[in-house]
Amino acid sequence: DARVTQTPRHKVTEMGQEVTMRCQPILGHNTVFWYRQTMMQGLELLAYFRNRAPLDDSGMPKDRFSAEMPDATLATLKIQPSEPRDSAVYFCASGSRYRGSGQETQYFGPGTRLLVL
Amino acid sequence: SQQGEEDPQALSIQEGENATMNCSYKTSINNLQWYRQNSGRGLVHLILIRSNEREKHSGRLRVTLDTSKKSSSLLITASRAADTASYFCATDDRGSTLGRLYFGRGTQLTVWP
Asked: Are B113 and B21 a contacting pair, CB within 8 Å?
């Protein structure tokens, strides 16, 4: 059963520390999305890639966040330096075309729950 | 923005009852999707309806789409306690080819045994 995997599942860190989150998309999916979910803001799109190229990262604070796809099996999201307001659940999702409709169904990972103290 | 809005924000019903959630959006779409999120988990795709479709069924799920009103509804029939979750609608943007989805804030459904 193909799934998106994310590591770590939980992360507690102190303000100012670097945080790296990793995602392994479903094999064969060519689009990867990073989302952040909080009670206040809901689900926010941070960045996404197609065929490893960044398509849009306008939702991401550029001064501290960076997203990359070193290869087709790994996507990373880094926060440096981290701040308490970054505390949230970060989801990775990978995309699959839906039966020729052209619209991508997204498959979400279990998320990384980040707490910055 | 295109972000969808679900209504109500929270819904509480008894097992066996039907649950109806609504979604409104702003711009023209190609498709609309519904997702479910159980507490502490990632979102799971439930169903997709295309802009040229008016109704779609999948098991106990029934989705309708009214593009003239820019709205959709998700009906869960004969609900079960296991249906307790948050439900999100997600739309694309017909004016864009980038393939991103716009998610609403979700409806929290609680089904009491």
From this structure: no
